Amino acid sequence: MEKSAVAVKVVPPTSHPMPRKYLILAGALLCAGAAAHGETAATTALGALKLLPKGSAAKVALIEAREGKPAPSRWHILVHDPKEENGVREFVVANGEVVASRNLSQFAESLSADEVLGEGIKVDSDRVAKLAQQYADANKLELAEMNFELKRDGEGAVPIWNVTCLDAAGNELGHLVLTATKGTIVSHEGFATDPKPADTALVLHADPIADKKPPTPKKPEVRKAVPVGTPAAAETPKAGLFQHGGPIQRLFTGH
Description:
eight-stranded antiparallel beta sheet; extended
């Protein structure tokens, strides 16, 4: 007897498209990751100092950065290193970490102890960038990039921010110079019109978010416990002359 062949139909698995809500969620997570990366890359100058090896921040003599839009992608921090023949130790900070350390720099051939910035730097690079943007807006100029430099011009001088402002084609729009201690504007070459003083004061004198301390919680008031006395027993009213239990009853009954 011949066996009949059975035809088997193979059905390919049905592909189920991902629901729209999951696609939206995935896109949001990708955007959040990109935003977090951007925040890390936008480290300020003073924030970059905190990433240096222990003891290096006190010896910083020069800070340089290029192509800030407005924040640069990396900071070149030059430290006076007496162990080096030229006194130079350069740290490069990018993406929230030190990515390079070398004893040569394109920004300085040598450094001395007299060039160390010292303490007292209060104006960070993000405020400098906002000031530069205010000067550009006041003069109706399209600011695209900024080059930053922080150094001292001679022994005993205060640290000075020098900011070169460029347009999208790389042409210089203006040059802003201000102290890094109080934010005093020294010069603003290329910017004929000053921004409103109230606007610049708002940028310079606003408290940095990182420096704000949470308010000290008030200590709860402790009150001494007041002893609660046992309530006095209710006084039993005395029986009247002719009432039950009164003197007349006791006289005749003895009770």
